[in-house]
Design a protein that fits this description.
Blueprint (H helix, E strand, L loop, with lengths): L1 H13 L12 E4 L2 E4 L10 H5 L5 H10 L15 E8 L2 E12 L1 E2 L3 E2 L6 E2 L6 E2 L4 H14 L26 H6 L16 H9 L10 E2 L2 H15 L3 H13 L5 E2 L7 H7 L19 H5 L9 E3 L1 H12 L3 E2 L2 E2 L3 H7 L9 E2 L15 E2 L2 H4 L8 E5 L3 E6 L4 E7 L12 H12 L3
Parallel strand pairs: 9-14
Antiparallel strand pairs: 1-2, 3-4, 3-18, 4-7, 5-6, 8-11, 10-11, 12-13, 15-16, 16-17, 17-18
Helix pairs in contact: 3-14, 4-7, 4-8
């Protein structure tokens, strides 16, 4: 069933024993933010640190390891080749785990010889897929903070090319709450220029009737263009200047092969698909539309580490501030984390019956990936490649879970049972 469900979204959007490395990192919080004693994937925490690890670290390691092989949830294939997990409680890192392989298969796909595989590290860099939407939302809300954008203004005020039946009533807020009526994605055309693709995104017709939650990558593509219009910057530059650099997220951004050293590309990039017409994807965006548009759009394209994604969750948990630097106002963070879709139905063929709860760029109360941590105030997001961010304000908890479930084939497994089990395992101890 998962293949059919995932096929729907993917087409709409764009067309031996596993090695194990797992450590409870000896991490401590400093005034400037994070300190990781073994971010290079095998150095740092000693026996004393391991002895002091929280009780949930070993169970979390067991869950992550279990999904390296077929399970009852995914009986034909492993859920992923590798995974990394960062848990933060009260702004302190309490678990920093890495299992399996960042690279296990070559194009074909074919399973690589053991000597050619690359083990997952705690600083592995992942294709974040739709987690990109969170960063685009933050960049857009920064413009709201600065008075350059009105959430309740029509989109066409900022982007005159956003035309079509009913689209004059679509507001900026609707883009971020997925209530605009825009479809899941847009259909790419190979060979079309990036400028023509961008215009095509703006011309996308509405598909919704009555107001409802309808997950829309197209909506966040439009949001990204608003950021560019009002800042005068490309989207990647706006996010770097306004979000990732202030967070200290050194290894987060679009098109990582342009800014990573050759050594880091070989050792730290997680692979995704190994059977596409583009061959093995490693450091090249998995999303077809993002690839056709140069790797930088509002719905997908960013890469980053589990640590950097966790810092983003901690910043939002702290009301918009991290490491002494304010990234969003407390007022706009409160607005961002409020459910704007109360009473609305949700249209989602992949997850029938899901709640429509959604803030501005983040989803709320989603048990399908939040497990028993799901609550009206629990927020986060997922990515198609197997990534997710979960934040539970009640427990001052941030969970950054990165996997390469699209390696070598995204249709092999449904990542949701694994995501929910990680969250539910934590809930038993916190």
């Amino acid at each position: 069933m998962i293949s059919a469900m995932s096929l729907t979204r993917r087409h709409l959007l764009g067309a031996g024993a596993a090695a194990l490395t797992a450590t409870a990192a000896g991490c401590k919080r400093e005034a400037s933010g994070w300190f990781d004693g073994q971010s290079s994937g095998g150095q740092g925490a000693g026996a004393a640190a391991a002895a002091a690890a929280p009780a949930y670290v070993a169970p979390l390691k067991a869950v992550l390891t279990k999904y390296l092989k077929p399970t009852t949830a995914n009986p034909k294939h492993p859920t992923y080749a590798g995974a990394a997990l960062v848990v933060m409680v009260n702004n302190s890192t309490t678990a920093n785990l890495a299992v399996g392989h960042a690279l296990r298969y070559g194009a074909g796909p074919v399973e690589l010889a053991a000597a050619k595989r690359v083990a997952t590290r705690t600083d592995t860099i992942w294709d974040l897929a739709s987690l990109t939407k969170v960063y685009v939302a933050i960049a857009l809300l920064q413009q709201v903070d600065q008075g350059r954008v009105d959430l309740d203004a029509p989109v066409v005020r900022y982007l005159p090319g956003f035309t079509g039946t009913g689209k004059a009533q679509v507001t900026v807020r609707m883009l971020l709450t997925h209530t605009s009526g825009l479809p899941v994605g847009v259909t790419g055309v190979k060979g079309l220029s990036v400028a023509a693709q961008r215009a095509k995104v703006l011309a996308t017709p509405l598909v919704g009737g009555a107001k409802a939650f309808r997950y829309s990558s197209a909506g966040l593509m439009v949001a990204g263009q608003i950021v560019e219009k009002v800042t005068g910057l490309t989207l990647d530059a706006a996010i770097k200047n306004g979000v990732t650099a202030p967070l200290g997220a050194r290894y987060m951004g679009f098109n990582p092969r342009k800014w990573l050293t050759a050594a880091d590309q070989a050792a730290r990039l997680a692979a995704t698909d190994a059977r596409t017409s583009r061959g093995l994807l490693r450091g090249t965006v998995h999303d077809d539309i993002a690839y056709q548009m140069g790797g930088v759009i509002g719905s997908a394209g960013m890469f980053g580490t589990a640590r950097d994604v966790a810092l983003t969750g901690q910043m939002l948990l702290a009301g918009g501030i991290y490491g002494g630097r304010r990234i969003l106002s407390a007022e706009i963070v409160k607005e961002m984390l409020t459910n704007h879709n109360a009473g609305l139905p949700a249209v989602d063929p992949e997850r029938p019956g899901r709640p429509s709860d959604h803030g501005l760029g983040v989803t709320l109360r989603q048990p399908w990936f939040m497990g028993t941590l799901s609550a009206p105030t629990t927020f986060g997001h997922t990515g198609f490649t197997g990534t997710s961010l979960l934040v539970d304000p009640r427990k001052k908890l941030v969970v950054s879970l990165m996997t390469n479930r699209a390696h070598p084939n995204w249709s092999w497994a449904d990542p949701d049972p694994m995501r929910a089990e990680v969250a539910t395992t934590l809930a038993k101890y916190l």
